[in-house]
Design brief:
The chain is α/β, with parallel strands linked by helices. The chain has a single domain, classed as Rossmann fold, CATH 3.40.50.720. 41% of the residues lie in helices and 13% in strands. It is built from 8 helices and 7 strands, in the order E-H-E-H-E-H-E-H-E-H-E-H-H-H-E. Strands 3-2-1-4-5-6-7 form a 7-stranded parallel sheet, with helices on both faces. The protein is globular and about 60 Å long. Bound molecules: NADP nicotinamide-adenine-dinucleotide phosphate. NADP nicotinamide-adenine-dinucleotide phosphate (NAP) binds next to helix 1.
Length: 284
C-alpha cells in the first residue's frame, strides 16, 4: 500500500463565525474563549456573535475581553423563550458577521420543582428555554449552515441522561434536547451539517455558585467525582470548541459527557461491594 505525501499548503483556513447563546454566563464565557484559542491554533480568523437575553455591562465587558483575545465580536440580544426573538438573534448575527459556521446553543437554566405539583407554566418555560429555542434557532440558521457546511453544538446536561429528581422538567427537557440533536444530525448530515451535544456534570458557574459557598457541600460534592474536583467553564468550553470545529469533522449525533466521571460513579456507592472507594477520598 502506498501513501501519497500531502502537498504543503499556506492557505488561510476559512473564517469562523460562531453564534454563542448565553455567552456572558459561566459556561458561555468558557466556550467563547475556547473557540478563540482553537481558531488561533488553526490560524483562522474568528468572529463571535455573543448572545445575551438583554443588553448589559456584563455583555459589554465580555465583548471587550473577546476583542482583546483576538476575535472580532458583536453583542446580540433577545429572549430565547420567544421563537420570534430566536429567529431575530440569528438574523442579527448574520447582519453583523455573515453566514454562521457554528451555532452554539448554550443558554439554559434549571430550577427546583417536584413533578407532583409542578405548574404547567414552569414545565413549558423549562422546555421553551432549554429545548424549543435550540430547534427554532437551528431551523433559522439552517440555510447559512448549509452554505458553510457548519456545525451545531448544544449544551445539554448529565441530567439529560440521568433523572434529576426535584428539578421539575429539566431532565426531560435536556433529554429531549439530546434527541433533537441526534435527529437533526440524521436529517441534515447530507447537507454537511454536524450536530452534537455536550453534557456537563457539576460545573462551577454563576448558576451554581451559591451551592459552592458552603465549603462542606463543596467537599462532599468533590468526593463523589472520580477526578476529585468540580468542573470549570473551560472544561466544557474546550469540549464544545472541539465538537464545533474541524477536529470533529466526522462526529455527528453524539452527546459527550464532561463530568469528571461522576455519572458512572453510581455503582461504586453501593455499600458492601468490594473495591468501593472510601467516600471523601478523592484526590485533590
Ligand atoms: N453549571 C452547571 O453545573 C451545569 C451543569 C449541566 C448543564 N449546564 C447547562 O449549561 C448551560 C450554561 O449554564 P451556566 O452554568 O453557564 O449558567 P449561567 O451562568 O446562568 O448562564 C446561562 C446563560 O443563559 C442565558 N439565558 C437564560 N435565560 C435566557 C433567556 N430567556 N434568553 C436568552 N438567554 C437566556 C443567560 O443569559 P443572560 O445572562 O444574558 O440573561 C445566561 O448567561 C445551561 O444550558 C445549563 O443548563 C450547567
Amino acid at each position: 500500500m502506498t501513501h501519497s505525501t500531502p502537498t504543503p499548503t499556506t492557505a488561510t483556513p476559512a473564517p469562523i463565525h460562531a453564534l454563542v447563546t448565553g455567552a456572558a454566563g459561566g459556561i458561555g464565557r468558557g466556550i467563547c474563549f475556547a473557540l478563540i484559542a482553537q481558531a488561533r491554533r488553526d490560524g483562522a480568523p474568528i468572529h463571535i456573535s455573543a448572545a445575551a437575553s438583554a443588553p448589559s455591562e456584563k455583555l459589554d465587558h465580555l465583548l471587550a475581553e473577546l476583542r482583546a483575545a483576538g476575535a472580532t465580536a458583536q453583542g446580540i440580544t433577545g429572549d430565547i423563550t420567544d421563537p420570534a426573538q430566536c429567529v431575530d438573534l440569528v438574523a442579527q448575527a448574520h447582519a453583523g458577521g455573515g453566514d454562521l459556521t457554528a451555532l452554539v446553543c448554550n443558554a439554559g437554566a434549571s430550577g427546583p420543582g417536584r413533578l407532583v405539583d409542578l405548574p404547567v407554566a414552569q414545565w413549558d418555560h423549562t422546555f421553551h428555554l432549554n429545548t424549543r429555542s435550540v430547534f427554532v434557532m437551528a431551523q433559522a440558521a439552517y440555510p447559512q449552515l448549509v452554505r458553510t457546511r457548519g456545525s451545531i453544538t448544544a449544551v445539554a446536561s448529565m441530567s439529560g441522561l440521568t433523572p434529576h429528581p426535584g428539578y421539575g422538567g429539566y431532565s426531560a427537557a435536556k433529554a429531549a434536547l439530546i434527541m433533537l440533536c441526534r435527529q437533526m444530525a440524521q436529517e441534515w448530515g447530507a447537507e454537511g451539517i454536524r450536530v452534537n451535544a455536550v453534557c456537563p456534570g457539576m460545573t462551577h458557574t454563576p448558576l451554581t455558585a451559591p451551592v459552592y459557598t458552603d465549603p462542606a457541600v463543596k467537599t462532599q460534592r468533590e468526593s463523589l467525582v472520580p477526578l476529585g474536583r468540580i468542573g470549570q467553564p473551560e472544561d466544557i468550553g474546550r469540549t464544545v470548541a472541539f465538537l464545533a470545529g474541524p477536529g470533529a469533522a466526522y462526529i455527528t449525533g453524539q452527546s459527550l459527557v464532561v463530568d469528571g466521571g461522576i455519572s458512572d460513579h453510581m455503582l461504586t456507592m453501593i455499600p458492601g461491594r468490594p473495591g468501593r472507594p472510601p467516600i471523601g477520598s478523592a484526590p485533590k
